[in-house]
Amino acid sequence: MEYGGGGDDARDGTRWIVLVVRVPAEPSRHRVAVWRELRKTGALSLGQGVWAVPDVPLFADGIGRVLELTERAGGEAVSLAATGRGNQDGRRLRAMFTAARSADWAEFIADCGKFEAELAKACGGAAVGNSRIAKFTLAELEEEEQSLERLRRWHRDLTARDVFGAPEAAEAGERLKVCVAACEDYAERVFTALHQVPEQRMPEEGRREPGEESGR
User: Which residue in 107, 138, 144, 178 has its CB near the most CB atoms, within 10 A?
Assistant: First the structure.
């Protein structure tokens, strides 16, 4: 199924799944669960209770979970296959969906910046009084590696959902590479600090001043 490039024909193979979802207002946890699943899936909100995703296999599991959660909550959901009626409709849907992915990428890029700042702080970039504090510990390294793995999973998920190719995707990929390199550098610093041999000092009794003769 082709998605990216142009063409004025609205029926260029771009098909959509449109969901009309109604969930009882109470208890509110059911509505929140359905909303979270729709957001997690990457569905585009078209209005109150109306959502859309490109009709590709990638979104099938998420749509299935939304339908299951809605039924479990005693709500109603209708799933429709659709295309735009005209050229402008098709372009508008793709633009709206891509704008939503752009917002996701912007959030990802911001979190990359937070990760880089946290690593800089761990490496001694944080001023405390007149000194700077570095945290070269295995516990800190493990925490940073977990944060990096979260960024990697997030990047994979966003890449999969970004079927039309938002312009921010390239920058996000570069920022992730920077995060990986920074974490590798921090790991090297941690292992260097942990394996550093402290300077050995001679006992005071055994020390001699230069020129002092032995045994006299």
Answer: 144
For 42, which DSSP code? Answer: T
The position carrying tokens 């979802």 is 21
CB within 8 Å of 42: residues ≥ 6 apart: 53, 59, 62, 100, 101, 104, 161
The token pair at 211 is 């020129």
Kindly report the number of other CB atoms within 10 A of residue 64's CB atom: 13
C-alpha triplet 83, 88, 91: angle, nearest 5°:
70
Chain center to CA of 182: 17
Q: Which two tokens stand for residue 76?
A: 């109603």
Instruction: List pLDDT tens digits, range 104-153.
Output: 999 999 999 999 999 998 887 544 444 445 778 888 999 999 999 999 99
CA dihedral (198, 127, 106, 187) in degrees, to 10, reads 0
